[in-house]
Amino acid sequence: MSNLQSKLVEWRRDFHRYPEGGFLEMRTASIVASILDELGFQLEMGKQVMSADYCMGKPNKEDTEAHYQWALENGAKKEYLEPFKDGYTGIVATLDTKKEGQTIAFRVDMDALPINESEADSHFPQKEGFRSTVPNQMHACGHDAHTTIGLGLATLIAENKDSLKGKIKLIFQPAEEGTRGARSMAQAKVVDDVDYFIASHVGTGVPDGHFVASKNGFLATSKLDITFKGVASHAGGNPEEGKNALLAAASAALNIYAIPRHSEGATRINVGEMHAGSGRNIIADRAVLKVETRGENTKINEYVKAQAEAVIAGSAQMYGVDYEIQTVGEAVSAQGSTELAAVLHACAEESPHIKKSILEDDSPAGSEDATFFMERIQQNGGQATYCIFGTELAAGHHNEKFDINEGTMLAAVKVLFESIKKLH
Q1: Predicted local confidence at residue 365, as pLDDT
Q2: Run of H or E residues at 404
Q3: DSSP letters along 238-299, please?
Q4: CA neighbor of 191 nearest in space, from 173, 216, 212
Q5: Helix 143-159 / helix 3-17 crossing angle, nearest 10 deg
Q6: Strand 356-361, strand 210-215: pairing
Q7: pLDDT at 294
Q8: Which of 14, 268, 328, 371 is deepest in the core (most CB within 10 A)?
Q9: At what angle do helices 407-423 and 143-159 cross, to 10 degrees?
Q10: Residue 77 per-residue DSSP state
């Protein structure tokens, strides 16, 4: 195993053991910052690179403070922790070669998922002793590997900085899950000077050793938390005095699925959670729905979202209750820049680690908030792409037995580093 490969495995397994949810990646970010600082990168952190007004679905103050204490007790680098203590956990690391050239940015994400990791003996992280130490938190999507790939890339950049030109920016983004974190960084203008932008992911159904230089087809999405507020009353004694929030929520949940589809492209709608009521003989005064909308492009998603909001308003009116809609996550659609994808495609075809490279894949996909970066850069005249490094998965993404082939990380680091040399 090469020295870099062993470092990658060590980093990834450490991050895997200590997963952190969106806007709570304090331990992770502090370790990342300490390594980047040691490598000679200029660091901007926390509110320097995140607009507070555009953070969506951020944990409350109590949960954030409690997690800061957890991070302190679980190996965070204390001297780098302060910028992240309020839950603004983004990092932008810049290496300026002082030589004329393009500005290239790479984005990786850091957050985990609320999943309890498998304890089965056959599960590799359990067998090798790096299973999550946190109940109901797990790196079940590969963001531990993404963070590690970012650090591996930083290592190669630092080792070869004398032969590079222009500026290289590494963006470590919080809260990709639920599409919550990227918009705040884009609004903080962290990519406004960028000529080329590359986001990457491992897995997603792409076979081990295969590479997709431009993954398109991401659906625009909105994540909505809806609260209905009624009036409680005894269901037997005074039912007419109550205002039933549960029925309003149930009506909304059913009728949301009746939203007409759109002639210009695919739509999606889902009511994933419903919570209401406190007893069988009480008119429920409060109900909560968690809903997501998606559309093949931003325009179609806006149509679905507006229709859902109209259904919610109508249901509230029908039962005489108040309601509140909070957008706790959002992503736009995006199309990769073919010219930039062609550079990555060429690097992958030359790589001994990649068996097969595909220039573009336009098949429908889930949603990704890296699209906010892509949109902003392309609007400013730059180029952007989202690439996929295929890997062998032990189970699908967001599964308790999720695991990757750790060799994928070195392959990704080397292809991304080669792209810097080609673009300069």
Answers
A1: 84
A2: none
A3: -GGG-B-HHHHHHHHHHHHTTPPPBTTB-EEEEEEEEEE-S-TTEE--EEEEEEEEEESSHH
A4: 173
A5: 140
A6: parallel
A7: 97
A8: 371
A9: 50
A10: -
C-alpha 98, offset from chain centre: 32
The token pair that represents 366 in the structure block: 């889930």
Q: Are 45 and 173 in contact (CB under 8 A)?
A: no
Q: Which residue carries 């990342």 as its tokens? A: 32
- Greatest extent of the chain over all pairs of C-alpha atoms, in Å: 81
**Contact between 223 and 292 (Cβ < 8 Å):** yes
Instruction: Tell me the average confidence (pLDDT) per consecutive run of 10 residues in the chain, 424 residues long.
Output: 90 98 98 98 98 96 98 98 98 97 98 97 97 98 98 98 97 97 98 98 96 96 98 96 98 97 96 97 98 96 98 98 97 96 98 97 91 97 98 96 97 98 90
Q: What is the chain's alpha carbon radius of gyration, rounded to the nearest angstrom?
A: 23
- List all residues 6 or more positions away from 365 whose beta carbon is below 8 Å from its beta carbon: 204, 215, 216, 217, 218, 219
In this predicted structure, what is the pLDDT of residue 353? 94
Global pTM?
Answer: 0.95
Using DSSP, state whether 145 is helix, strand or coil.
Answer: helix
Alpha helices in 289-385 (DSSP H): 298-318, 338-350, 370-379
| Token code pair at residue 169 | 């920016």
Q: What is the pLDDT of residue 214?
A: 97
Q: pLDDT at position 364, please?
A: 84
Position of tokens 């490598």? 39
N- to C-terminal Cα separation, the chain: 30
The confidence score (pLDDT) of residue 424 equals 79
The residue type found at 44 is E
Q: How many CB atoms lie within 10 A of CB 155?
A: 20
